């Protein structure tokens, strides 16, 4: 890896600035600074980098293709919504050095980000930041400055005691291992040590049987407990001698609790664990709205990055709004607005590359790729590209065998379903040409949609002319691509039950869906047990804000389209629901939502025929190394509190919060128990939010973590916090104790 390399940082065709890029000694941080001023401009951690793309693989670099060869260009892609970093190296050799070096660092197999590594990196990083004169030593004044930087407001006498205890050389400064000793004393987890000693007879180690007792009594592990205990010792005990004796030290115990096995999220549910052979309408499906937009809905930028980011988050239903473009080339953008445009060919090329890349490879998920839906508006398809299959489309043309109208995700692996208008019925596509006027989407496309709805209702002598007009404006090849997701207008549940088919889908605005939930909740659940429903944000949400997806999931709506570019509670819920099942983008609905004769109504908890309400008790014990609030003043220390939110049916909606801890973001201790009653736990999501308390204004966001109730592991667990963008912020976490009773 080159150090201090001069490269061009590119933001647009005209904005190209030279910057020096350097990998720090910790091999975890990259700084870059201005060539002109020498001032450090920014820095990022290797753990923030998702991937590195070579060549002209961004719109900005594509626009410079004639000026700079692809061998010198590469793009650093970050997790979450952070913008990409486009770079142009001075030579192909320099570019390759950075590309290969970065890939080595971010590749988990060759450079695992274990808890121990993160902690060691964290220590080194703080030391370097606090060592102002860069002499490799730290005096007490520098230590006091460090504590402020680390979100700690500590009594000066206590800090001096810790400093003197660690200063083994009695030099008045800390260096090397002395600073590590100071850090260990600073981060001593009394609450974990106390728990360890409860089960340890001598207070120094857990024997195999003592660890088994802890796993059974507190962690409620009831199968293969002895084998699990042996695995945990082998995996997390740092002492080779202790491993040989099959015992776990206090350090090993802490490492276990901070590991995936000690997480609140059931690790067995991280992989593909659900039945994938049910009809498509029996699943919640991760879905985006106006996927091409990465900003607002009126003047925002359209970009293929919107598709890439959504797909990498596990999204399985994308939106492509296609309109006439120059020279007979279709363009994708938000019609009748001032958003920028991207060529349709670039969109489908991007889908071909990223449609079936899995977010977290897992048994049953890796190497496959669950089916992708593409929907949107297709107005006045240009004659020059009337055969999308031949010229642009990456989708695999799929037709069901016989009269199958309810395929499963298992059957649809590596297939792309096109959702849109269709000439005739599915049966006509299978059996021959049809003579039925096409139904159309009840979507938010203004006057065009209204005219389409009017045409769909005509009968008698007008029927043939409507069909003829549609055949003139809709390419037959495009119509033939629409197999399972034919758009039809929603005209009531009774009408749908009498005349619609499982191969059809209706789209509803959030306002229309809410009215149906309020007036006909049970009928809505029944309808979604056999047919797909898509909901989308109100046209008034020009800022790309989102509605809560929970109320739509409560009635079984499968395709709840959200603006993925907008961070917030709504996207936290979406990420939380779909973080299970191998992140494949499909989550199986509860059994009572898959029954066409179900009596369930989310507004009436008594209609749920499951077990009696359960009690969820959460003891919020402590927090560790919480991040500072963005753009906070130097020396400012947060006053953290924890809020736990339940999102589910109306009767289960609730939130409670702890008191705030003054001036301690490093190791706050709450020891407060919050209690919730859940009537329909199968639909509940639990969101943990850490905020910085402010008595004069709105609290500031610090971190969050959201998961489905069904994925919670009881016992003593760590919750590894995520940023507003949904990216991890190691080593920030909460330590909790979970109990679930009926």
Automatic annotation (TrEMBL):
<keyword id="KW-0378">Hydrolase</keyword>
<feature type="region of interest" description="Disordered">
    <location>
        <begin position="427"/>
        <end position="467"/>
    </location>
</feature>
<dbReference type="GO" id="GO:0005509">
    <property type="term" value="F:calcium ion binding"/>
</dbReference>
<dbReference type="InterPro" id="IPR000008">
    <property type="entry name" value="C2_dom"/>
</dbReference>
<dbReference type="GO" id="GO:0004435">
    <property type="term" value="F:phosphatidylinositol-4,5-bisphosphate phospholipase C activity"/>
</dbReference>
<keyword id="KW-0807">Transducer</keyword>
<dbReference type="InterPro" id="IPR018247">
    <property type="entry name" value="EF_Hand_1_Ca_BS"/>
</dbReference>
<keyword id="KW-0677">Repeat</keyword>
<keyword id="KW-0442">Lipid degradation</keyword>
<keyword id="KW-0106">Calcium</keyword>
<dbReference type="InterPro" id="IPR002048">
    <property type="entry name" value="EF_hand_dom"/>
</dbReference>
<dbReference type="InterPro" id="IPR000909">
    <property type="entry name" value="PLipase_C_PInositol-sp_X_dom"/>
</dbReference>
<keyword id="KW-0479">Metal-binding</keyword>
<dbReference type="InterPro" id="IPR015359">
    <property type="entry name" value="PLC_EF-hand-like"/>
</dbReference>
<dbReference type="GO" id="GO:0016042">
    <property type="term" value="P:lipid catabolic process"/>
</dbReference>
<feature type="domain" description="PH">
    <location>
        <begin position="1"/>
        <end position="107"/>
    </location>
</feature>
<feature type="domain" description="EF-hand">
    <location>
        <begin position="118"/>
        <end position="153"/>
    </location>
</feature>
<keyword id="KW-0472">Membrane</keyword>
<dbReference type="GO" id="GO:0005634">
    <property type="term" value="C:nucleus"/>
</dbReference>
<dbReference type="Pfam" id="PF09279">
    <property type="entry name" value="EF-hand_like"/>
</dbReference>
<keyword id="KW-0539">Nucleus</keyword>
<feature type="domain" description="C2">
    <location>
        <begin position="594"/>
        <end position="723"/>
    </location>
</feature>
<dbReference type="Pfam" id="PF00388">
    <property type="entry name" value="PI-PLC-X"/>
</dbReference>
<dbReference type="Pfam" id="PF00387">
    <property type="entry name" value="PI-PLC-Y"/>
</dbReference>
<feature type="domain" description="EF-hand">
    <location>
        <begin position="154"/>
        <end position="189"/>
    </location>
</feature>
<dbReference type="InterPro" id="IPR001192">
    <property type="entry name" value="PI-PLC_fam"/>
</dbReference>
<keyword id="KW-0963">Cytoplasm</keyword>
<dbReference type="InterPro" id="IPR001849">
    <property type="entry name" value="PH_domain"/>
</dbReference>
<dbReference type="GO" id="GO:0005783">
    <property type="term" value="C:endoplasmic reticulum"/>
</dbReference>
<dbReference type="Pfam" id="PF13202">
    <property type="entry name" value="EF-hand_5"/>
</dbReference>
<dbReference type="Pfam" id="PF00168">
    <property type="entry name" value="C2"/>
</dbReference>
<dbReference type="InterPro" id="IPR035892">
    <property type="entry name" value="C2_domain_sf"/>
</dbReference>
<dbReference type="InterPro" id="IPR017946">
    <property type="entry name" value="PLC-like_Pdiesterase_TIM-brl"/>
</dbReference>
<keyword id="KW-0256">Endoplasmic reticulum</keyword>
<protein>
    <recommendedName>
        <fullName>Phosphoinositide phospholipase C</fullName>
        <ecNumber>3.1.4.11</ecNumber>
    </recommendedName>
</protein>
<dbReference type="InterPro" id="IPR011993">
    <property type="entry name" value="PH-like_dom_sf"/>
</dbReference>
<feature type="domain" description="PI-PLC Y-box">
    <location>
        <begin position="478"/>
        <end position="594"/>
    </location>
</feature>
<keyword id="KW-0443">Lipid metabolism</keyword>
<dbReference type="InterPro" id="IPR011992">
    <property type="entry name" value="EF-hand-dom_pair"/>
</dbReference>
<dbReference type="GO" id="GO:0005886">
    <property type="term" value="C:plasma membrane"/>
</dbReference>
<dbReference type="InterPro" id="IPR001711">
    <property type="entry name" value="PLipase_C_Pinositol-sp_Y"/>
</dbReference>
<dbReference type="Pfam" id="PF00169">
    <property type="entry name" value="PH"/>
</dbReference>
């Amino acid at each position: 890896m080159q150090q201090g390399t001069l490269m061009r940082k590119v933001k647009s065709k005209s904005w190209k600035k030279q910057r020096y890029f350097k990998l720090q000694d910790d091999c975890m941080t990259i700084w870059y600074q201005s060539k002109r001023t020498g001032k450090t401009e920014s820095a990022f951690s290797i753990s923030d980098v998702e991937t590195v793309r070579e060549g002209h693989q961004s719109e900005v670099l594509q626009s410079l293709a004639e000026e700079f060869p692809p061998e010198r260009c590469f793009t650093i892609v970050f997790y979450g919504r952070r913008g990409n970093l486009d770079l142009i190296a001075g030579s192909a050799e320099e570019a390759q050095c950075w590309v290969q070096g970065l890939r080595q660092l971010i590749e988990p197999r060759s450079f695992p980000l274990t808890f121990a590594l993160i902690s060691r990196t964290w220590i080194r990083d703080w030391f370097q930041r606090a060592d102002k004169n860069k002499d490799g030593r730290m005096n007490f004044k520098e230590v006091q400055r460090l504590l402020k930087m680390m979100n700690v407001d500590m009594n000066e006498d206590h800090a001096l005691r810790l400093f003197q205890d660690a200063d083994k050389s009695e030099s008045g400064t800390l260096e090397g291992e002395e600073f590590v000793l100071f850090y260990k004393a600073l981060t001593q987890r009394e609450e974990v040590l106390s728990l360890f000693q409860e089960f340890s007879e001598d207070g120094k180690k857990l024997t195999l049987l003592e660890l088994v007792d802890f796993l059974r009594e507190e962690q409620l592990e009831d199968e293969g407990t002895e084998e699990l205990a042996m695995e945990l010792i082998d995996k997390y005990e740092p002492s080779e001698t202790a491993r040989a004796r099959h015992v776990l030290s206090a350090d090993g115990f802490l490492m276990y609790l901070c590991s995936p096995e000690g997480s609140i999220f059931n690790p067995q549910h991280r992989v593909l664990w659900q039945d994938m052979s049910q009809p498509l309408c029996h699943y919640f499906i991760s879905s985006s709205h106006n996927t091409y937009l990465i900003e607002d809905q009126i003047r925002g930028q359209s970009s293929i990055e919107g598709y890439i980011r959504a797909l990498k988050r596990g999204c399985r239903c994308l939106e492509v709004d296609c309109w006439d473009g120059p020279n007979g080339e279709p363009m994708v953008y938000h019609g009748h607005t001032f958003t920028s445009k991207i060529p349709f060919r670039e969109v489908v090329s991007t889908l071909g590359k990223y449609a079936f890349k899995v977010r977290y490879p897992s048994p049953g998920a890796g190497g496959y790729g669950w089916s992708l839906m593409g929907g949107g508006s297709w107005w006045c398809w240009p004659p020059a590209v009337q055969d999308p299959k031949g010229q642009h489309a990456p989708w695999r043309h799929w037709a069901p065998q016989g009269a199958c109208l309810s395929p499963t995700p298992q059957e649809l692996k590596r297939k792309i379903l096109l959702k849109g208008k269709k000439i005739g019925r599915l049966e006509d596509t299978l059996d021959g040409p049809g003579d039925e006027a096409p139904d159309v989407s009840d979507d938010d496309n203004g006057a065009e949609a209204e005219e389409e709805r009017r045409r769909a209702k005509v009968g008698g002598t007008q029927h043939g002319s409507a069909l003829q007009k549609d055949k003139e404006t809709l390419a037959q090849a495009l119509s033939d691509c629409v197999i399972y997701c034919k758009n039809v207008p929603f005209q009531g549940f009774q009408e749908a039950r009498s005349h619609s088919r499982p191969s059809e889908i209706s789209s509803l605005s959030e306002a229309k869906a809410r009215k149906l939930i309020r007036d006909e909740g049970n009928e809505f659940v029944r309808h979604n047990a056999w047919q797909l429903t898509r909901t989308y944000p109100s046209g008034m949400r020009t800022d790309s804000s989102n509605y809560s997806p929970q109320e739509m999931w409560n009635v079984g709506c499968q395709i709840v389209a959200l603006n993925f570019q907008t961070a917030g509670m709504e996207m936290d819920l979406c990420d939380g629901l779909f973080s299970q099942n191998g992140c494949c983008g499909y989550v199986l609905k509860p059994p009572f939502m898959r029954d066409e004769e179900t009596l369930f109504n989310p507004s009436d908890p008594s209609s749920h025929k499951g077990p009696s309400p359960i009690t969820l008790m959460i003891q919020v014990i402590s927090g560790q190394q919480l991040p500072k609030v963005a753009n906070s003043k130097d020396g400012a220390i947060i006053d953290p509190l924890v809020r736990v939110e339940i999102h589910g049916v109306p009767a289960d909606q609730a939130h409670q919060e702890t008191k705030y801890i003054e001036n301690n973001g490093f190791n706050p201790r709450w020891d407060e128990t919050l209690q919730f009653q859940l009537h329909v736990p199968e639909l509940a999501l639990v969101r943990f939010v850490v905020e910085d308390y402010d008595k004069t204004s709105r609290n500031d966001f610090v971190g969050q973590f959201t998961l489905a109730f069904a994925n919670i592991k009881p016992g003593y667990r760590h919750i590894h916090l995520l940023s507003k963008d949904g990216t991890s912020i190691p080593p920030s976490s909460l330590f909790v104790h979970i109990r679930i009773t009926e």
